[in-house]
Design goal:
The complex is a heterodimer of chains A (52) and B (733). Chain A has two helices and no strands. Chain A is an all-alpha fold and 52 residues long. The chains are: A mainly alpha (52), B alpha+beta (733).
Chain lengths: 52, 733
């Protein structure tokens, strides 16, 4: 049962990390243009010169 | 400008609700502040190459600081201080993409968008909390005991309480609003269940009880928020598309000043101003012609399909279209005082009267909510009186509230409406109001307008035969030179016959009369009868005259209005389904009779005034019929607002689109008949969903009242009913 003391914080931390990533994505307006974003990765425009 | 600053600007606009309500102030601020933002609609872009092409060409254009394409909305936002849309549109069009200016003031999407993100955030938080609590709950359900169980409950509580406080806020505030106004909506049992479940769980955890409902409380938030989000999405998609249609008509006028013409927002016009109206432009305010002669298309206002000749002194109303010659107009009433704005206000009043329609969900919750409270209270009373154990009685009451809590009921309507309106959207119909679909299902009479609704409002040449073969190239060259709808119809007909234009010299347009040119030493004229000394003849058909020089007799060319594609199938399907079909038009009787016979509509009336139309719909209502009105003009708006449910094509006036519940995006009319069938299907699905969620309750509630309900059961009943309701709704797609 000692293992619970490690596993529970670890699982909560991982969940929290996921939540933070979700909030970050939402705040960054990444859900604004889902169709455009799925197409933009095909563009080679900024590959050699990353967008400032 | 980066994306972030671009959006900061949006936030600032919507942070002030009064600004949204006062477009005038906002437009003035926009004109002065030089926000430098131009939004263009790009209807044809669809791929990665399109995005990079458009952004590259715009970024290369001098004066442009940044351009960002949004493919989902098919728009590009250009940050270019000092540049106007007129300068940017040719840039985009030069690489082959269609572009139209959008009026940023009419696009208030940012405020609505924030609401959507807010719900999404709450869904995310409750979803993550639910997953974590569920892991711990499964351990408890599968037999964790004593200290381990208590620890798991404590951790669950530490996650659940802040989550419920945050994710449940929309329900709490809406329930509180309802209670203050003495209404018992669906949100009251939801809030009560959330609060009671959390409170009891904390109490049980403190006293190392066996059951805690933390998982149920969080799951309830999660499922109900999904319902809220679906509901919101459907309305947001419809609203943003409707807004885009409005924003396509940038309200701008050209004021004649001593220094030349100056473009001003229509909102800034005042009586006495002189404005210039170009051929083909819509008249922005009420007024009187000061200079120039032209022809005026009044079809949107009166339903008349034949243009009216116009000269100095003629009164014009906002919404009419100037056809051939440039005009200078003296404004008599602008902005809020114009006849168009007054009518829009009238429509808004009529709409609020119709707003009393209550959807199936509201009606269900009105029955459901008191019943649930009564049930919970009775089981509390029953258990307390028989066992005198307050803790047990409260526990049972909470279990009843949680199990009956309308998770599936909250999803039942939004899921169906989302699926149905998504399918209609793909067929080119846009639902502006959630209850429109339910009202559409009740329709048993359909009333059509003629010009612009059953017909395209675009003339078509009846026959090419009167024009001699050798004169056709010259006629084409002549017709090409004019923007008048009849000339364009002639151009199209000749092009389709494979004619090549001849070379004409001295081509000139005589405003209000027609177009003239010289060909092989002869003067050709195309235009009105009295200009060529011909008899006008039958006034019911639109006609134009072609003169091939002084010695030849002028040739009469007849035009008829083109039927909207799908109109025949639509009317036939409606008649076959046994619904009553009516045709009401402001146009002259022979034209209307002709069309009614072509479509097989027995019930038609011509020369109908706007008030008569509204009266006719009220009559139908008195007969107990639920009428669907399909119309596009200003003369239809009162009828559109009066009808049980209304549809207008995207080409309709803004006032008509505002008044109607559904906008037809494409030009095809056939989806209207399909929509009626789909609406009936959707209503059936909603009722099935109610039955499903009720079924789960009937099974689960006795267990809860008997005191056997465990948190596991609550979780199972809730998830199963929500999932089956959603799957049932998806059958509509």
């Amino acid at each position: 049962m000692q293992i619970l003391g490690i596993l529970i914080p670890v699982s909560l931390a991982l969940g929290g990390l996921g939540l933070l990533a979700f909030i970050w994505a939402l705040r960054g307006r990444q859900y604004e243009d889902p169709k455009g974003d799925s197409q933009r990765i095909l563009s080679s425009e900024w590959d050699d010169h990353p967008k400032p | 400008m980066s994306d972030a600053t671009l959006h900061d600007h949006d936030a600032r606009l919507s942070a002030c609700p009064a600004c949204d309500a006062a477009p005038l102030a906002q437009r003035i601020a926009a004109a002065k502040g030089g926000q430098g933002e131009v939004i263009l609609s790009l209807p044809t872009i669809h791929c990665a190459t399109c995005i990079t092409d458009v952004e590259r060409v715009l970024n290369r254009h001098p004066g442009v600081r940044a351009a960002r394409v949004n493919l989902t909305l098919r728009r590009v936002a250009v940050d270019a201080p000092g540049l106007t849309a007129e300068e940017l549109i040719p840039v985009v069009e030069s690489i082959g993409y269609e572009a139209h200016e959008l009026d940023p003031a009419a696009l208030s999407a940012s405020a609505a968008d924030r609401q959507g993100r807010d719900i999404l955030m709450r869904i995310g938080v409750s979803g993550f909390a639910m997953m974590n609590i569920m892991i711990l709950s499964v351990a408890v359900w599968s037999g964790a005991e004593a200290a381990t169980r208590d620890m798991f409950h404590w951790i669950s509580g530490a996650i659940a309480l802040p989550t419920v406080a945050f994710a449940g806020r929309p329900f709490f505030s809406s329930a509180w609003r309802g209670l203050r106004h003495g209404r018992l909506g669906m949100d009251v049992p939801i809030s009560l269940a959330l609060i009671l479940a959390s409170a009891i769980s904390v109490y049980e955890t403190l006293h190392s009880g066996h059951h805690a409902y933390f998982d149920a409380a969080v799951m309830l938030c999660f499922f109900l928020l999904i319902g809220r989000y679906l509901d919101y999405r459907t309305r947001a998609v419809a609203r943003s598309a409707a807004e885009e249609l409005t924003a396509l008509e940038v309200p701008r006028a050209f004021r004649v000043t001593a220094a030349g013409d100056e473009p001003v927002p229509v909102a800034e016009l005042s009586p006495g101003d002189l404005i210039r109206i170009r051929p083909g432009a819509r008249i922005p305010a009420d007024g009187e012609i000061a200079e120039g002669s032209s022809e005026i298309d009044r079809s949107l206002l009166t339903g008349e399909s034949i243009p009216v000749p116009a000269g100095p002194g003629l009164a014009l109303s906002a919404g009419e279209v100037n056809l051939t010659g440039p005009l200078v107009m003296r404004v008599t009433a602008a902005g809020r005082d114009s006849s168009l704005a007054r009518l829009t206000a009238l429509v808004a009043a009529a709409e609020s009267a119709r707003g009393h329609y209550t959807g199936l969900a509201d009606r269900a919750s009105r029955l459901y909510s008191p019943l649930v409270h009564l049930l919970a209270f009775c089981s509390f009373l029953g258990w307390y009186l028989t066992t005198h154990d307050l803790r047990l009685a409260v526990n049972v009451a909470a279990a009843v509230l949680i199990i009956t809590c309308p998770c599936a009921l909250g999803l039942a309507v939004p899921a169906v409406i989302t699926a149905a309106s998504g399918r209609l959207f793909r067929r080119g119909m846009l639902i502006k109001d959630g209850t429109a679909l339910e009202r559409l299902a009740e329709v048993d009479a359909v009333v059509f307008d003629k010009t612009g609704t059953l017909t395209m409002g675009v003339p078509q040449l009846v026959s090419l035969d009167p024009i001699p073969m050798d004169a056709r190239p010259a006629a084409l060259a002549l017709a090409q030179g004019s923007g008048h709808p009849l000339s364009q119809a002639l151009t199209q007909a000749l092009r389709e016959a494979g004619t090549e234009p001849a070379a004409l010299t001295d081509l000139r347009e005589v405003p209000g009369y027609g177009i003239a040119g010289t060909w092989q030493g002869r003067e050709l004229r195309l235009g009105r009868a009295d200009w060529m000394g011909a008899e006008h003849g039958d006034a019911t058909l639109s006609a134009s005259w072609l003169s091939l020089g002084q010695e030849a007799m002028p040739i009469r060319l007849e035009f008829s209005d083109r039927l909207r594609p799908g109109a025949e199938t639509c009317v036939a399907r409606l008649l076959a389904s046994g619904r009553r079909v009516m045709l009401l038009s402001g146009d002259a009787a022979p034209v209307v009779r002709d069309l009614a016979q072509r479509l097989g509509i027995a019930d038609w009336r011509a020369g109908v005034t706007p008030l008569d139309k509204a009266e006719a719909l009220r009559d139908l209502d008195m007969q107990g019929l639920h009428a669907l009105m399909v119309g596009d003009g200003l003369n239809d708006t009162a009828a559109l607002a009066e009808a049980h449910v209304s549809i207008s094509p995207a080409s309709a006036l803004d006032a008509a689109r505002t008044a109607s519940d559904i906008v037809l995006m494409g030009s095809d009319l056939a989806p209207v008949a399909e929509a009626l069938d789909l609406a009936r299907n959707a209503r059936r699905r909603i009722k099935e969903n109610f039955a499903i969620s009720l079924g789960y309750n009937v099974v689960a509630v006795p267990f809860a009242i008997a005191g056997f309900a465990t948190p596991l059961m609550a979780a199972l009943a809730m998830s199963l009913s929500s999932i089956s309701v959603t799957l049932n709704a998806l059958r509509l797609r």
